[in-house]
Amino acid sequence: MLIPSIDLQNGAVVQLVQGERLAIRDTDVFAWVHRFERCPKVQVIDLDAAMGRGDNLSIVRQIAGTLSCRVGGGVRTVERAHDILAAGAKAVIVGSSLFKDGRPDLAFAKRMADAVGVEQVIAAVDSKAGQVVIHGWKTALPITAVDAIRALEPYCAEFLYTHVDREGLMAGTDLSAILQLRRATTRRLTAAGGITTREEIDTLHEHDVDAVVGMALYTGRLSLEP
User: 183: which residues sit within 8 A by CB, 6+ positions away?
Assistant: First the structure.
């Protein structure tokens, strides 16, 4: 399944290359919300909240009440998770806060899962140069994505894996890395990072992996239509 991504920064929809260089910015957020409203799943990420530089929570709440979406970015507390879910989001994406002292923080993961329900927790595990990265992909941890997924599996219903090395480059993703993770967990798996073609989406679908797409949709390289 193709899952469009709405990344929010300073009140606008943006697309960043490697999480840093701004490539696209559109202040008409709800034009994109309208475009994606028939999609069974949409991913919404509050980049400002993720980086601890304010948030776009009022926009997130409006989107969550309109689209069938999962929301991430700055979900560091049970209270924030409850807020997002109460607005209508189907699930929360929890990332950096699942890690502490260089390894998975299983106590926090359990607390979140117990509070909102395992079925509403998506654990984000992002990888760059073979290591898990957190804090907006700035901090590398001495563990692999497979290590992280195996540890966190009891506390979520789904994993979101971003292959940061390919993010925003529109040069294709790393299918072998994604399929390695597919073999490592029985949970649902969604992949992101450089997914550009319908062929990649179809291949991932054959292996029961959903595909988050951003840059390729916003540039018109890829259509929502099959």
Answer: none
